[in-house]
From TrEMBL:
Pro residues: compositionally biased ranges: 47-60
Taxonomic source organism: Canis lupus dingo (dingo)
Coiled-coil features, chain-numbered ranges: none
Protein name per its UniProtKB record: F-box and leucine rich repeat protein 16
Transmembrane segments: none
InterPro entries, per database record: F-box-like_dom_sf, F-box_LRR-repeat, FBXL15_LRR, Leu-rich_rpt_Cys-con_subtyp, LRR_dom_sf
One GO location term (cellular component): cytoplasm
Domain of life: Eukaryota
Amino acid sequence: MSSPGVDGDPKPPCLPRNGLVKLPGQPNGLGAASITKGTPAAKNRPCQPPPPPTLPPPSLAAPLPRAALAGGLCPPAGLPLGGPASAPVPGPPVERPPLATDEKILNGLFWYFSACEKCVLAQVCKAWRRVLYQPKFWAGLTPVLHAKELYNVLPGGEKEFVNLQGFAARGFEGFCLVGVSDLDICEFIDNYALSKKGVKAMSLKRSTITDAGLEVMLEQMQGVVRLELSGCNDFTEAGLWSSLSARITSLSVSDCINVADDAIAAISQLLPNLAELSLQAYHVTDTALAYFTARQGHSTHTLRLLSCWEITNHGVVNVVHSLPNLTALSLSGCSKVTDDGVELVAENLRKLRSLDLSWCPRITDMALEYVACDLHRLEELVLDRCARPPHMGQWRAGPGERGRRDLLEECTDPQPEWRGGAVVGRWPRTHGMGWDRGGGAVVRVQEGGSGCAAGGGAAVG
């Protein structure tokens, strides 16, 4: 507060006196201070803040330190004290790999290539190989190895078994070996890491495997549940008796000259869990089909008898009584089966979804009528290469013939087509042909060796 003067006027707060300046008291409690006139006033000037320390410019990403604010530093204009609380604090920039080696992109890209293309792409670089050698890209594929591809010839003329590590990395569960011998199979078992437990399916084609080799293979490869033998003429029925294991659920034997009725006896006795059986043997008779027991009756759902020339309608009787739960049956090439055999199938195997009667020259339009009346679950019917596809010549001659009329009268299409000797139409499940899968099945019947097929939803051109 200023004191009054001599004349009653208030006294100015600061008057120069002998070169000194008297400063008023400061509200911050520092009291009065005096400095010499004309001297630098940077040190003891209380009404000005001290100079800011030399600091790097504040980053918009990081808040100002509290020590700097306490020392008198002011935040930048428009920036609240303490920095922007809502702004995230990013870390250092992440270096992404190039697109050509980005595994996330490659994992989605490689699905668009075929198996052959993947084999080529795996040779581009290590990064692509590492991605492509994941088992998911090879699921459902079976590598085929010929005997000459199993060995590398060394400079001295000796043979060395190839490295199968790449196959193990891709996790193949099945192999097809062509032209191999007993020794080749033993070498394969010793050199493939997953042969003991990891291989689920084995196929031997045109090979010289003997009874001993077949026994060793199935004894060592404990994971095999699907077995195919095609064109192997050196093993006998005794080899099947000594080697077949109850774990096998799918068996295919074709073009093996030593397979006859006794082989079917071994299969029926040793394979109680058999689900699929495909047999192509010229010397199998009706007697063999009577060997199936009640155990196969519960488990077996697919039976294919291909070119079994000795099978007659009596054999069909044994099949329908022993295997009542069949959903797929093929009598392709069973040339002695007639309409009566087809009638037995239609009356007793009501669960059938697929029926193959191709190469059966004794089938007439009566067989097709039996199928239409009783097999209401049927989705596929094959009459390919029939010498007389159910009176097709008469069907084509005029719509009044019985066979063609039976096909067309129940057709739900307004204008069923007759294309190139084929009747094409749709039948509901409750009428006529009785085939339906998602609104009806397209049925094709062709003559002149082109065949007939019924399938769900689309006709084969």
